[in-house]
Amino acid sequence: MRLRTAGLALVGLTVITIAPALRAQETTRSVWDGVYTEAQAKRGEAAYRLNCARCHGVALEGIETAGPLTGARFTANWNGVTVGDLMERVKVSMPNDRPGTLSRSLIADVLAYVFSVNRFPAGKAELARQTELLKQIKFEATRPAARP
Amino acid sequence: MRAISRSILPLAAVVGLLGWTAAAHGQSPKLSLVSEGTRNGQWPSYAGDVRGSKYSPLDQINAANFNDLEVAWRFKTDSLGTRPEYKLEGTPLMVNRVLYTTAGTRRAVIALDPGTGELLWVHGEHEGARAANAPRQLSGRGLAYWSDGTEERILYVTPGYRLLALDAKTGVPVPSFGVGGAVDLKKDDDQDIDLVTGEIGLQSAPVVAKDVVLVGAAFREGFTPKAHKNNKGYVRAFDVRTGKRLWIFHTIPKPGEFGYDTWLSGSAEENGNTGVWTQMTVDEDLGLAYLPVESPTNDFYGGHRPGNNLFGETLVCVDLRTGERKWHFQLVHHPLWDHDISSAPILADINVDGRAIKAVAQPSKQGYIYLFDRVTGKPVWPIEERPVEKGTVPGEWYAPTQPIPTKPPAYNRNGVLPEYLIDFTPALKAEALELTKKFKFGPIYTPPLVSKVDGPIALLTLATASGGTNWPGASYDPETHVVYASACDACLTRVGLVQPPSKDLSDSDYVHGFANQPFRISRGPGENAGADATPPPPQPGSGGGSAFVFDVQGLPIIKPPYGTINAISLDKGTILWQTPHGETPDAVRNHALLKGLSVPRTGQSDSVGTLVTKTLVIAGDPQFTTTADRPRGAMLRAYDKASGKEVGAVYMPAPQSGSPMTYLFGGRQYVVVAVSGGPYSGEYLAFALPAESAKAGPTGSR
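Above: the input entities. Below: the structure tokens describing the complete assembly.
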């Protein structure tokens, strides 16, 4: 785990050349593996309030057709894809009133907060902002059976 | 004003004109293709016909071969706007050998070859700031077709609230309609609306019948409106040839008009919304139009509008040519629950105890079918005024009774009772009760309440804002007189009221909110999300308050079924069958706490569009799932319409987000459905049987 974290930090600088080397780890890393930090989620909460809560609700419950960001309806929407897909969707279409204007690092913070509310565990490394790296992290709705 | 029209119209662009082939087929269009409806294998109106049916008699695709369906073509909509759209809700038309629909964040109109999906032409309007400010953006739900036997037109409403008439052959605006092909709907609306910033728009399709175009209006969400004196949602009719306004119906009456006195203390002047944002329905033979009117401002607080508030949440029948009111029935007096009327009324020629009745059936968020003689407005079965609980919100006015249909019974849950909470295991039920102990339960029409930190925090409601049958509406089988309605049984809305912290945020005494959470302004679906949206300054953080998760161990707090399809006999006033619709969500199916339990299919918590054919009811799953035998995606399902038994299902890469439609082209029956959601951007999918087997099946006349 420590090795992987270090590797990711490095890759942040040289995405294109090193990313293929991470392929072997793709299948083992998911949102249940501590992919963000508590401090990042804290930052993300403030950013969420500022940019997202108007439509998705302070409790992430959704309002009419702005979908919930917690619970079964949310996790069903993303189960089986990657956090990179989630990052891209947010980057392209959110927030509703000024799509495309949020920075990737701010979105990463918001995702960290959303993950914390959904009870995905925090870890030691922050969630990266690069889609290429986030595509290595699988979004799984339910906690996998006990992992070694 | 002039600056706006100048800036829009020169930019109005026919982006591509790739030719049109109908003329080459040597067909002379018949008169009133719209009136013909689906009987000859076409789909010339949003609901197939202008009667709200969503029915086609085609039967090449049936129970025996539904599983053989293949994707015949697909049309990705990403490039029809400045970025992809993830909420594609359109239902195409197919008429005179061309398929038409709206798509993309620009709400472009496209014409496609019905057999291949090849793009024939595309038209987009660049409306700039006007579109960026619009309350209802994105691709919208569809368009309308008109022909006099020679000329053919496509009509639609832009995000910036302009009614356009396009030449169906080329996509070019028709110069003789309005000004340069457009009617500015913000003008001549019996109220002053700023052409750029004024809040009004529409995402639904106009209706065209007998050379008359009907257009409604929509606004921002009414949870926390900035001003209760918002613009009003009048209904207007226009001449399809010239764009001339024929009439206007004041959904909030003017002084001296019928219903004005249902707004006490002159409050008709002080409130807005009350539009028709969903589809309207027309009886072309009787010359009558049926208008399903939504809620007034605010959704959950009516202290600024004492009285019953006609024509809020009222089904209104008017003369198609004059707009004169023939009859009306208010479904909810003094609306306080955001029940709107969310979908098209359905015309149904039924037979009750040997008596033939020309009826109109109104599906609802409440799960009631309100059924009337459509000539007289008299209920087919008694609709009783029953006493309801009076609330305690300061300044609120309460209607003492509400109309409750005696038949048919409600087809979805329309209140929240403790027995609706999750009960897979006693422990889960106990946790749900603990989670809701500071919330109020109650049957339908339990009044909203002022939120208190120590409780009650809110009223728990089902079948209100998002519940029951929403905008996709229901389908009707004219042969068997059965309505097929999809309904959400678990779309929970917590209704609490708080005082806005300042009059700058809202001038209402109360708006939707929770005492234990910071105040926020609700935004509408698609608001400020279209191709021309520009970034406004960020709002200051609201600060404080703690988020709470309203799930039980990651499971929905309301027990299954989460969503259903319901068959309701209008002749008998009974529910014939109900079936959960949609694969059990992954989070439920794979949940560790449910291992070893036998959980029947739960369905999914959404209201989806249905299509009824000669033998089938067809609808797609509204949510993504991943199962052992297929990848992540959703299924397009077919049910035996007589029994409700699922007889087939085919894979789609994303959930259904529009309503399915069907047509016959080149001897093959196609089913087209809009899909999108999650990371999957909007796409129209066309299904058909493999060409070799389609030839063996029965065919229609085209």
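Note for the figure: Chain B touches chain A through 60 residues (CB under 8 Å).
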